[in-house]
Structures are given as structure tokens and as C-alpha cells.
């Protein structure tokens, strides 16, 4: 069966490339609801394109109020679901190739969504095509379920399951191989501070902003300053330790804009990036601002958050025996003379709770200026490594890779945690760079094809009747 799957997958290689390119060329970043399009027109276009591709391949499809759609094959009462999404995070800056051109270079397709999660959705769809072309008999229905706001709350899939049956088993091609038996909890917190007070002479913070999404390490942040001349500001900056290539200073009438360029990364892996907001505040905290509340806020941020990514100084550092450890990422900030707000994306250990994280933080604020509010909490996912479902996924993976390593835990969050029994499974192979939410995101074409083959084998092992061999 392995050889037949590989041969069929290879015959579909060019089609997989074209389908991935068609989807990546749609800039499906969530926008304001527009009429019948709950997450904006571009997200709908990506969903519609995925449905169109599926129908052209001969599959039955169903659109659920433009919130989600499914592609179906097979027969039976039970459902095996493959959970993917067609929305993407904002592209950020600094790309070598245009983020929505889906260009092919060095056997890689470049573009936002190639690895998260349009390429994997294509791999899942073509896995179904492989099973179909091989005339495999199924005793379950197999559904590729496509959501539309995975990157910003997962509401679309929750909506879908209010209208459609919950699958008995599901895996989500939206992370790494091998099978993932545990996902950390995901907590978004909004920190805010009221900076309004009587105007004073001297250096003022007119504006500060940075970041594109809570679950991205921001690669750019800027602040606008007033009440100082260029010579004075340059002398102050000379006394501060920072990478000069990362900072730029621009005069705008009587004000100055300080811009910091960091390195983007997925919010679950803040150690892989360089947080532009945090590094900018590190510099600002050493400047002599006139307003005492601005000074208090900058002191709070630099001392309690700083450039750490484990939450140690703010009191929420944690790790369990799975093992999974807490990560802390300031993803978005916006403020002016009167108020500043920023959103922190925390991935907390599988055996912890959001309530503990928030309590630890509030107990370590040491300032009445700072308010903390819970925006969103998605509880962790955990399954035993020896679960029969996980073992079948592992067998399919090992057959095509020879890798005998066991199931793993991650900080990323996938649709798998929204179903009764689900895990994440691929598409990133061990040792490959994690480029989701980063510039120059890509998927290796060989890996796209290999993933489709692995998913096809998993479908056959889980939903196929036993006489297929």
C-alpha cells in the first residue's frame, strides 16, 4: 500500500502546487464583518476557492453560513475529521518574495499561509484524493473541515459544530510531526494604564504602537516624542546600549519618531523572535520623561516584562512534568498621552489553569496604575501517548519517515482542542524551522507531497475497511 500511495501522490504533485498557490494568492487576513461574510470578503474568497477546488475533484461539499465548510467522502455513521483553516495572520514586513504571490524558489512555495495553514489544507484534501483514486473502501465518513478565523479566536469552528455533527475522531494538520498529544493553554490578557495627568514641560511620549496580532512576535514598533530637540535626543540615545542598526530616528515637524525593527515569530515561540515593542520600551525607559505616569508605566514594563519570554519577573513563570513551560509574548501595543494598552499572548502549561496565571501576575504588579483583563482563554489539550488513535497516526508517520520518536507536546493551539477527541498532526517535520507567522514563510514541495501521503495512510488505517490491503 505504501508504494501505491507514494506513486499516486507523486502523480498529483503539480496539482498540489497549483492548488496551494491559488489559496495563498488570496490575502485572507480577518477583517470586519461585511454583510454575509463574517470575517471579511478575503477570508470568504479563500473558503470559496477551497470549496471550488474540492468540487472540481469530485467531492461533496457544504458551506455553513460562510463560517466554515466541509469536504466529504466515504460512508458510515462515524466521522474522521481533518481540521484545517484558510485564514492567515497579517503578513508583517521584510519579505524576500511577495507574501501573496506564492512564488516557487528552490523547490519551496513562499507566501503567507503556505505552512499555516493553506499548504497543509491542500495536503489533507489531496490525501482524500489519493484514497479516492486508489478506490479504498471506507467504513467512516471522512471530512476535511475548513474554518475561517482560527488565528483570532476559533469562533467559526464552534459555530460549525452547532450546525454539524461532532466527529468521533479528528486530527489537525496545523503544527508539527509526529503526533501531538498535548497543547498548552492559550491566554490573551489586555494590560492597560491611564497616563492622563497635568501637562508638564519637557520630554513627552505622544504616541506608541507596534505589532500586528497577539499571537505574533512584533517585528516593528514606534514611538513619537516631543519636548526635546534633536541634539539633546541624540546625546541621550548615545548613552543607551542597543543595536544601532535596529533603531531609526526621524524628525516630523517638532516631534521625533523612534522606530525599532525586531524579528517576527509565532507567539508560541517568542524565543525565536526579537520583540520590537519590548526592545523599544527598554530604550524609552532610560529617557527622562516629564510625566510621572509615563515614567511609572515604562518602569513597570521594563522591570516586570522587559525582554523576557518566560514571565519570570511578572511572577507567572511555570512548568509541569509533561513537560510544558509557560511563554509570554507582548503582541500588540497602542497608546498616546492619555492611555496605553497592550495585549499579551501567554501559552501556559498543560497542567495549569488560566486563573493561576492571572493570579500570579496580579500578585506581582506592585502598581495601581496597571489594570489586567482576560480577553480569551483556550484550555489545554491532553491525551495519553499510548492512546490507540494516536498510535495509528504515529504508525502512518513512521512508515513514511522511519522516525521512531514518540508523540510530543507544543505551545501552539490548533482546532484539535475544539473536538471531543482530536490531536494535531504535522505538517512540519522534525528539525525544520518554524516559519508560521514569520516573514518568508514557505512549504517545501516535497514535504507537501509527503504530508499528503502520510495523511492518506492515516485515513486508510483509521477509516478504511480491513480488506483494502
List keywords for this structure.
eight-stranded antiparallel sheet; 2 domains; hydrolase; 469 residues; Aminopeptidase; alpha+beta; metal-binding; 11 helices; elongated; protease; dipeptidase; Peptidase_M20_dimer
SSE arrangement:
Layout: H1 2-11, H2 13-24, H3 41-56, E1 60-64, E2 68-74, E3 79-85, E4 104-105, E5 108-110, H4 118-133, E6 141-147, H5 155-163, E7 169-172, E8 175-176, E9 179-183, E10 185-194, E11 204-210, E12 216-217, E13 220-226, H6 230-238, E14 247-252, E15 255-261, E16 265-266, H7 276-284, H8 292-304, E17 327-336, E18 339-348, H9 354-362, E19 370-378, E20 381-382, H10 388-401, E21 408-410, E22 422-425, E23 427-428, E24 442-444, H11 445-463
Parallel strand pairs: 3-6, 3-7, 7-22, 8-23, 9-21
Antiparallel strand pairs: 1-2, 2-6, 4-5, 5-24, 9-20, 9-22, 10-18, 10-19, 11-13, 11-17, 12-16, 13-15, 14-15, 17-18
Helix pairs in contact: 1-11, 2-3, 2-4, 4-11, 10-11
Protein name: Succinyl-diaminopimelate desuccinylase
Cofactor: Zn(2+)
Domain Peptidase M20 dimerisation: 256-369
Brief description of this entry?
This protein has 469 residues and is α+β, with helices and mostly antiparallel strands. 29% of the residues lie in helices and 27% in strands. A hairpin with a 3-residue loop joins strand 1 and strand 2.
3D architecture notes:
It holds the Pfam family Peptidase_M20. Residues 256-369 form the Peptidase M20 dimerisation domain. InterPro entries: ArgE/DapE_CS, Bact_exopeptidase_dim_dom, M20A_pepV-rel, Peptidase_M20, Peptidase_M20_dimer, Peptidase_M20A. Its cofactor is Zn(2+). With 469 residues, the protein is α+β, with helices and mostly antiparallel strands. It folds into two domains: 1-184 and 381-463, Zn peptidases (Aminopeptidase, 3-Layer(aba) Sandwich), CATH 3.40.630.10; 185-377, Alpha-Beta Plaits, CATH 3.30.70.360. 29% of the residues lie in helices and 27% in strands. The protein is built from eleven helices and 24 strands. The chain has helices at residues 2-11, 13-24, 41-56, 118-133, 155-163, 230-238, 276-284, 292-304, 354-362, 388-401, 445-463; strands at residues 60-64, 68-74, 79-85, 104-105, 108-110, 141-147, 169-172, 175-176, 179-183, 185-194, 204-210, 216-217, 220-226, 247-252, 255-261, 265-266, 327-336, 339-348, 370-378, 381-382, 408-410, 422-425, 427-428, 442-444. Strands 1, 2, 3, 6, 7, 9, 20, 21 and 22 form a nine-stranded mixed β-sheet that branches. A hairpin with a 2-residue loop joins strand 14 and strand 15. The termini are close together. The model has no long low-confidence stretch (mean pLDDT 95).
Amino acid at each position: 500500500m505504501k508504494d501505491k500511495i507514494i506513486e499516486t501522490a507523486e502523480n498529483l504533485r503539480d496539482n498540489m502546487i497549483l492548488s496551494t498557490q491559488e489559496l495563498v494568492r488570496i490575502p485572507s487576513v480577518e477583517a470586519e464583518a461585511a454583510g454575509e461574510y463574517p470575517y471579511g470578503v478575503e477570508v470568504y474568497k479563500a473558503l470559496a476557492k477551497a470549496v471550488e477546488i474540492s468540487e472540481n475533484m469530485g467531492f461533496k461539499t457544504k458551506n455553513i453560513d460562510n463560517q466554515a465548510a466541509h469536504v466529504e467522502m466515504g460512508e458510515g455513521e462515524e466521522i474522521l475529521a481533518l481540521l484545517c483553516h484558510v485564514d492567515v495572520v497579517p503578513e508583517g514586513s521584510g519579505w524576500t518574495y511577495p507574501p501573496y504571490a506564492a512564488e516557487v524558489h528552490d523547490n519551496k512555495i513562499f507566501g503567507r499561509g503556505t505552512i499555516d495553514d493553506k499548504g497543509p489544507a491542500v495536503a489533507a484534501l489531496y490525501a482524500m484524493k489519493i484514497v479516492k483514486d486508489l478506490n479504498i473502501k471506507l467504513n467512516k465518513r471522512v471530512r476535511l473541515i475548513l474554518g475561517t478565523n482560527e488565528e483570532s479566536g476559533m469562533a467559526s469552528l464552534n459555530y460549525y459544530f452547532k450546525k454539524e455533527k461532532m466527529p468521533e475522531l479528528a486530527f489537525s494538520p496545523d503544527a508539527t510531526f509526529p503526533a501531538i498529544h498535548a497543547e498548552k493553554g492559550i491566554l490573551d490578557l489586555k494590560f492597560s494604564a491611564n497616563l492622563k495627568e497635568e501637562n508638564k514641560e519637557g520630554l513627552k511620549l505622544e504616541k506608541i504602537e507596534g505589532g500586528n496580532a497577539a499571537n505574533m512576535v512584533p517585528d516593528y514598533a514606534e514611538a513619537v516624542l516631543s519636548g526635546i530637540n534633536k541634539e539633546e535626543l541624540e546625546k541621550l540615545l548615545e548613552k543607551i546600549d542597543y543595536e544601532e542598526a535596529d533603531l531609526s530616528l526621524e524628525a516630523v515637524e517638532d516631534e521625533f519618531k523612534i522606530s525599532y525593527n525586531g524579528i517576527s515569530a509565532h507567539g508560541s515561540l517568542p524565543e525565536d523572535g526579537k520583540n520590537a515593542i519590548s526592545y523599544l520600551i527598554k530604550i524609552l525607559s532610560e529617557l527622562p520623561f516629564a510625566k510621572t505616569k509615563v515614567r511609572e508605566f515604562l518602569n513597570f514594563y521594563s522591570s516586570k516584562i522587559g525582554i523576557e519570554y518566560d514571565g519570570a519577573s511578572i511572577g507567572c513563570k511555570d512548568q509541569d512534568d509533561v513537560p510544558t513551560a509557560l511563554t509570554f509574548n507582548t503582541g500588540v501595543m497602542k497608546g498616546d498621552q492619555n492611555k496605553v494598552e497592550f495585549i499579551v499572548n501567554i501559552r501556559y502549561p498543560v497542567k495549569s489553569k488560566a486563573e493561576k496565571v492571572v493570579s500570579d501576575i496580579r500578585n506581582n504588579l506592585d502598581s495601581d496604575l496597571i489594570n489586567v483583563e482576560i480577553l480569551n482563554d483556550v484550555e489545554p489539550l491532553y491525551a495519553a501517548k499510548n492512546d490507540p488513535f494516536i498510535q495509528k497516526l504515529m504508525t502512518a508517520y513512521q512508515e513514511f519517515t522511519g522516525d521512531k520518536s514518540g508523540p510530543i507536546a507544543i505551545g501552539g493551539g490548533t482546532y484539535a482542542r475544539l473536538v471531543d477527541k482530536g490531536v494535531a498532526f504535522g505538517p512540519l517535520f522534525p528539525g525544520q524551522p518554524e516559519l508560521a507567522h514569520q516573514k518568508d514563510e514557505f512549504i517545501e514541495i516535497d514535504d507537501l507531497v509527503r504530508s499528503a501521503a502520510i495523511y492518506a495512510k492515516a485515513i486508510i488505517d483509521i477509516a478504511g475497511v480491513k480488506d483494502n490491503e
